[in-house]
Amino acid sequence: MGTEFKKPIPAGQIKEQRLTEEMASEQPTELSGNFEADLQHLRSLFHDSSDLVIRRFRLPIPEDLELAMFYIDGLVDTRVVDQDIMRSLLHLSRMESVAEKLKPGNALDKIKAYLLAAGEIEASGEIKNILHTILSGDTVLLISGSKEAIIVNSRGFETRGVQEPTIEAVVRGPREGFSENIRTNTGLIRRRIKDPDLVVETAIIGRRTGTDIAFLYIKDIANPNIVADIKAQVQNIEIDAVLESGYVEQLVKAHGASLFPQMQATERPDKAAAGILEGRVAIIVDGSPFVLLAPVVWIQFFQSPEDYYEHSWLSSFIRLIRLAATVFSLFLSGIYVALTSFHPEMIPTTLALALAAARTGVPFSLLAEILIMELLVEIIREASVRLPGPIGPTVGIVGGLILGEASVRAGIVSPLTVIVVAITAIGSFATPNQSTAISIRLLRFPFIFLGASFGLIGITAGIILLVIHLAGLESWGIPYMAPYAPYDPTGQGDTVLRRDFLFQRTRPRFLKPLDRYRLPGSGFDKEGSDGTQS
Amino acid sequence: MEPNHNSVTPLQAVAIIVNTIISARLLILPRELATEAGNGSWVVLIVGGLIMLAVAALYTVVGRQFPGSTLPQYAVTTLGVFFGGLVSLLFAISWLLMATLSSRVFAAVIITAILPRVPLEVGIIVMLLLAAHLATKDVGTVARVHELFFPLVVGALFLLIIPSLVRINGWQLLPLMEFDGWRKLGRGTLVGLTSFLGFEIVSLFIPYYEQPEKAGRSHTLGLLIVAAIFLLVMMGCLGILGKANLVHTQWPTLTLVRMISFHGIFERLEAPFLAVYVVVIFTTMGSMLFGVVDIISDLFKIKSRTTWPYLLALPAYYLAIKPPNIVAVEQIGIMFTRIRFGLVLAAPLLILFIAYWRGKRGDPDEKPPKQP
What we know:
The structure holds 2 protein chains of 2 kinds.
Chain A: H1 11-25, H2 35-45, E1 52-59, E2 65-72, H3 78-92, H4 96-101, H5 107-115, E3 121-124, H6 127-136, E4 139-143, E5 149-152, H7 182-192, E6 198-205, E7 211-218, H8 224-235, H9 245-251, E8 264-266, H10 269-278, E9 281-285, E10 291-294, H11 312-342, H12 349-359, H13 366-386, H14 391-409, H15 415-429, H16 434-472, E11 474-475, E12 478-479
Antiparallel strand pairs in A: 1-2, 2-4, 3-5, 4-5, 6-7, 7-9, 8-10, 9-10, 11-12
Helix pairs in contact in A: 7-10, 11-15, 11-16, 13-14, 13-15, 13-16
Chain B: H1 10-21, H2 25-37, H3 41-65, H4 71-113, H5 120-135, H6 139-161, H7 182-194, H8 202-205, H9 215-246, H10 252-258, H11 270-299, H12 313-321, H13 326-358
């Protein structure tokens, strides 16, 4: 709050500007209908790139009909191009029944109607659209004498298949993860929610990358105002490149200065589906296996899809452990520094003596000692992520065990420091959400400094600042700390503790869903919801 | 109704009242009460609480009389720009002084009890800046901060005080009543009364209430929770220390905590108690400075409140380090709270009277003012 961030120039303004530029350069925006001119124009727009394939051919009957086919080699499924387009065109046009109907004037309609064996066909005369479809892997058929071209879906580029998610691993639960292909991803969600009210809307952002984006939400659950808001904000992004969903997440961030994620990135279709069913919007960005969910609240970053697949008592216990781990990784080193430097009287006497004994011979101050160790752990962690698969864990073990042991033996750090740092490091792995885990790793350092300068009072001051910050965050009008502040009884069934499904009759109210009820019996009427608004 | 994210829920109203009233004064309250009323302290606390409930009802009535207006707004509507502004400024000054005194008392406690190496000035300035930081936020955020800290404030106080209650000696509480003349009783009641000061901050939050019809209930519940905590602390101090010791103990509440220990885990609980108490003080000071900022920005039509509230820490800091020692601070505090009580009591009465006389009422359909 308060900090002003440079807002991108509104898209409308830029589009207008570009429109006037286009007019000035006198580039045609539509096909002219002159076959040779259009062909040359399209060819020139690609600057003779070597992967652009232009295939000219003629349909012999009744009189020669000239055609040209455009596609990008590597993006198309050549089987579709050869069999379903070329072969069917050339073969079927020889059939007399078809040939009679085919005249130069109605070629486009007849080809569309009779001669193509491909599923998805569209006619368009807009050059911008044609370019985008060619670049997306479609095949474009230019027909002489026609002001429109036929666009045939022939996308068939190499993609990674549906594989097991790596970051958000679960013990129990589906093993499918999103892949880089937007259609695969929408399909993965569709397969889980067979509801015609699940809406998939697409948009294109990124001036140069022309990245496809899909918004998924359930029409009669998600609050229409929030959906409209999210869509408008994402579509208004004016940047040349969107290569990953992280771009979108950062560019529509309402509180830019905050370290806390304001959208949830997930690579699990079951998690995305659960979010959509609660009334959230899923944003799929082509080329990214991470699907964004918005709006978000703080507590959901500590929830794993697995929690819903086990008994509610077990998952509540695991959530408590997870939260404790997060608290440890955030505060433990700071509290350790505070206690040993300022409040030794709080520690039981025997432990205090053991502490003092362990620290004799350590040349550094406690602050320096813990900073050295924390830094070391961070380096090991980063190194083991960068290293190729099988070596990574080895480095972790070598780094952790050998270095820790050796530095204690060498008298550089005390054993208790190693224990504390190890706990904070392990604790940060227990957070299911990657972005939250990283922000907590980072926030640990201010707490160490606060603990070292003001003791427990400093830590409390840090917590106060953190709480003020979190209470001030909002995600599309929904307070970040909901359902705790403002307290929402309907949302309490699924926070740190998870109640049994049968006790969670309603969806959390704080997401302002249209259809509030999950279970029948508590009023199945959609009119009875007070989340409805004008 | 669409819940507005910048509105205050009934629970948040309770949290605001409890967090604001419980302040640094709780550390010395048992001594103050024991000095004036002795074993009859619980009576004056209850009487004071009851009177304050009536005063709180007064604020609820004024607030509902002018829906959509905060204290400075309806003060200006009824009393005119000059007198209304003056009354509002008096409130602002009283809140600023309250925050100042809190920071000074608390810094002194921290430094004496757990952080002897930290200079007094650092303690004061840290507390003031934390509070000023809250004052830069909007109503919704302030309400949510109070709500989030509410369980911590109440829970920590109960958790730390209930274990000490097992040490109460029943005979220390006897006689259950004490009557030393009307004058003494009156002074005792005044202490009891003024210990509940701070709830008048709700006059800034009432127009944002999500369910204005529940305002009275929230205010009563808040005051009752505070009264329960005060009574527990008072009885604990009296029952453990006895009247004779209590009147000579600097910070009796802290002494109460000092007696608890969980052997094998924590030897002493002073440091964590004071660490939690930072939150207690912060919520009070934050409310007070928020009130100052709200009144100033309302009177002088300042739209943005993102940076300048931090400047409030300067005069507050200057005032906080002015008194030479903690005894002087306490004397100033006692004097100041009496004047403040007069203001808190007189202002709504005056406004109600003038409003009735001049026939002015707020527009019942008025929307809450927009926050920056």
